[in-house]
Records
---
Amino acid sequence: MSGNFGALNFPGLRSLPVADMQLFPVAASAQSHSIDGLYWFLTIVSVVMTLLIFAAIAFFAWKYHAKKNPHPTQIEGSTKLELTWSILPFLVMLIMFAWGAQIFFAAQQPPKDAMEIFVTGKQWMWKIQYPDGGREIDELHVPVGTPVKLTMASEDVIHSFSIPAFRVRHDVVPGHYNSLWFTATKPGRYHLFCTEYCGNQHAGMIGWVDAMDRREYEKWKSGGSQGTLAEQGQNLFAQYGCGTCHLLDQQGRGPNLRGLYNKPVQLSDGRTVIANDAYLRESILEANAKIVSGFVPGIMPIFKGQISEENVIQLIGYIRSLSPNGPASQQGSQQGAVVISPSASGGTSTSTSPASKIPVNSQQQ
Ligand code: CUA
């Protein structure tokens, strides 16, 4: 075959020349090299061990062949040998463990100043939302040299977001915010993939990441949009009439959302949780999941199935904007709200709760 395979064309898949496929993708992020280093270590250890084992098999088959060794030798074992081949591999495994754990923990900890971009997976496309309100489908623009944190949600089934050139991948599971982060180091255009089978057009759930240098990125960003993410959320807030209960200047039938983001919330069952992205998402979609102390359940409608994950991200963007220094501290998308003090007492304060104790009314079925 000549090596010219033309292009594969799937519905929704921009032509993907087979010639562009490489055994090893380019390394275009800050974490690429540490991940590649571990990968090569694993590969080399595996190859060396395999060669040693095969060499030993061949050598012993030759040395103890029945013709040369007609009377089998009885070997009773050797403690020294047993200890050696137990302890040495154990130490090598420990190196793999420590090295892998170090990379794993680094991958879980986006820097506090990371730029945040939101990704929603949907059969069969990736929808991207930027804090300034810009939106794209199957295209992700990031600046080079800036840590970028992706907060990801799924509209339907499990997808998996992967950028091989950045050595990042994370499952995108419905019902959760999932996140990953990277720092692009090389300007260029890189593939992004869905790497979890998600239906008959899974193979077409593919897109591009554009890593641009700072200046180019600022120029690209200055395109028009329908307001910032927070403004889009504010419009939705008005559209759904949220403001009739969630008053901003006083305590209404729903909790005041001003200053809420990432603050502790006292629940009616005595627990205290942090109003992070996961908590806000849950409270928007399923108001009765966590009832806030001092508020009556059964007022707020259930929005699950009524609004999209993108809308939820916009609403959270608006709620964040109500906290002056909110987005600076993003503990946001860690899974589930954090229980600080399970036995916090005094959770039954009636009348007006302080703004930091933000309830979300819930509805009993
Ligand atoms: Cu989405 Cu595969």
---
Amino acid sequence: MSDPLTLGVAGLGTVGMGLIQLLAAHAPRLQQMLGRSVKVTGVSARSRDKERGGGLDDVRWFDDPVALARDPSNQVFVELIGGEEGPAKAAIEAALRAKKHVVTANKALLAKHGIALARLAEENGVALNFEAAVAGGIPIIKTLREALAANRVKRVYGILNGTCNFILTKMTDEHMSFADALREAQELGYAEADPSFDVGGFDAAHKLSLLVSLAFGTVIDFDRIHVEGIEAITTADIAAAAELGYSIKLLGVASDTEDGVEARVTPVLVAEESALAEVSGVTNCVGIDGDFAGNLLLVGPGAGAKPTASAVASDIVDIARGLVMPPFIRSTNVLAPARGLDLGTHLGNYYVRLYVYDRPGAMAAITRRMSDENVSLESIVQKRPGRGVHPGQAAEPPPGAAEPAVNVILITHDTTEDAMRKALWAIEADGHVAERPQMIRIEDL
Ligand code: NDP
Ligand code: HSE
């Protein structure tokens, strides 16, 4: 029997303790499969006195994760602290320089420093594995790296943030408030330490930036991803979308076109009969269009202790088996420069909700602004005051206004993002609407 594979684990929160529990629960299985045991020899977290539920009796405690990363008692450093700078980055760098394999779930760090860290791993001949960083328990990194290695991927998309999907599902199915749904997601361990990363769309964009690099063979370019979160989605939008046969999802979409890579994370409307509409709660899904494999859709839990620990453990198993591959599939030397494309040229249908003052000429002015930008309308629905999309509010004047307002829902034919933005700026400036127009892309997926 070979010597055990020894681990130093930094971060003993949701994911770190999930991993400790998984390694304990599956110790015999791993030993049989790998011909050696997997043993945690050192750990680090912020508070030594915190009650963590056991499993840490025989391990050495390190106050400083960098000291743990450098300590020769472990062969693999597992970073589960989080944060794009600070101790997580310092400890990963220290481990790679000490020629240790690294496993991390930290997409925020990788989106910013992934290529530099991958280069460091390559220079030192060690692995930098991050299966858990994208879509929790779904094995999407391995799918791109191994199963689809011989495909040209043209598009990758998906529901990449469990917290947002959980919130939107709760708001839709249980009419829960945004704040209550977010609180529940935090209690369940789904949300980031700073939940504005989730609801602001940034966490999904971190993940999409990694998928873009893996799928299209380019360096990571987080700053060229167009990011919108779900904070502005109201119960009015959810109700209006449902009446029109749509669900609202936060979706990341990246397409490799001849002109460049269009990458965006935004709320979208998807048809109720689409597979994406079926993805509820904390579940994620990732779709990939490969030129030979065709369209694949992988669905599974996107956050939480057990699914994420499962992904982290799969990276450890690869290392135990001696698999060391370039972190971004190809050597960092051959990754192409990023080719981010401005979203202004994006062509699609749009949902628009306008809270319009109920006055003569308002609708004529709105449709004129649309036609000025060549935006053609597929449908216009004006809600009767007090009905449908602004419950309890529509018959009354909006706060601070003297006139009542009604919700008007517009669906456009294909048009460009630039044209939509110009039309909506003009409509807002004309003063016929009581709040900022809501615009949501309609996605045919
Ligand atoms: P938690 O907030 O639950 O845990 C973070 C851990 O890091 C805690 O144990 C904390 O210590 C420790 N920590 C914080 N600062 C330091 C420090 N300076 N030195 C040493 N330890 C420190 O986070 P999660 O487990 O939820 O997330 C960990 C990582 O996994 C993040 O990168 C996250 O994005 C990623 N991830 C999370 C998923 C999830 O579902 N939660 C899913 C996929 C990825 P203490 O306990 O003492 O406070
Ligand atoms: N906060 C993240 C989410 C964790 O909700 O998806 C998984 O990456």
